Amino acid sequence: MKTNNKTNQKLQTSAIALLNLVLFFSASEKAEAQNSANIVGIDHVGINVPDLNQAIGFFTNVLGFSPVTTLGPIPLDDVWKKTNNMQAATGPVTIKMIQAGTGANIELFEYKDNKGSTQHPGGDDIGASHIAFYTDDIKQSVDYLKSKGVQFLGEPFLMPSGDTEGESWVYFLTPWGSKMELVSYPNGKGYEKNKPAKLLWSPKNPLGKSNLSQNEEILSESAIRSLVETHLTIWNEKDLKKRVALMKKVYADAIEMVESHFIAKGHSEINGFIDGLHKKNPNSRFSHIKAIDVNHNIARLYWQNGPSDKPDAVTGMDLFIFENGKVSRLYVFVDDKK
């Protein structure tokens, strides 16, 4: 009996040592991958569509996204087709990149004379996939998409418990039959309550900080609205000294302003951009379209810009990320001209 106990103890000790060794090498491999791969995030998601114009129309006119770049038609040689497991008789490909709000881009592929399968993969098939779009108000989004004739695969379901507690989701179909998803968690997800070391990235908070650090200042809604109002004053101010003084109160020193065509970093670069706007349109001013929306340390402002006789010559939306009491990121969305 004593011999059996000793044997069991040796086996347990060996098992624990082996487990620790596995965990050690797993952690080492993860650290090595993070350092060597040098991957910082998802740039785009690619999907094949049967009709490129139909897909562009859906993503643009129904979901409100913006087509940006086009490649093709590009002829594909036999070696490429064989390497990528494609049918030999399939024709050239045309590629369109869609800017999909705050998140990864969507890359659309249309193959001329496509000889590949036209059958969508089943929900449990290898390779089946979907794209999930975040919304602050899932009921409003569902009602709107239904008014556009979009088919839903059920009704929004609210997760009652677990890591995804507080998340609502529902699947819908594109006109060509691909499955997509709407998801919403305006008050966060259940796992965030435990202050995890890692947080999932979310388009409702581009910095990936759905839980602010304990040392970070959480601004009141009135304070955020006041700073956003001052932001408008900054962009309307033509006196450089006054503008610089206001920028120091509102913008972090290392602020980044991200627009679809460029990124401006720091006060100096943003100042240069504002100066250019005043020189090009000396009589134009920025003003509200509607009230400022605030969600924790995030805010959005719908604005218009133009002279007094056409104040809405240009319209758009600014998304503000606040850290330590100031704007650290400013995302600028300019509406397409009609």
UniProtKB/TrEMBL annotation:
The keyword Signal applies. GO terms for molecular function: metal ion binding; methylmalonyl-CoA epimerase activity. Residues 41-185 form the VOC domain. Keywords: Metal-binding, Signal. GO terms for biological process: L-methylmalonyl-CoA metabolic process. Residues 1-33 form the signal peptide. The keyword Signal applies. It comes from Flavobacterium glycines. This is Catechol 2,3-dioxygenase.
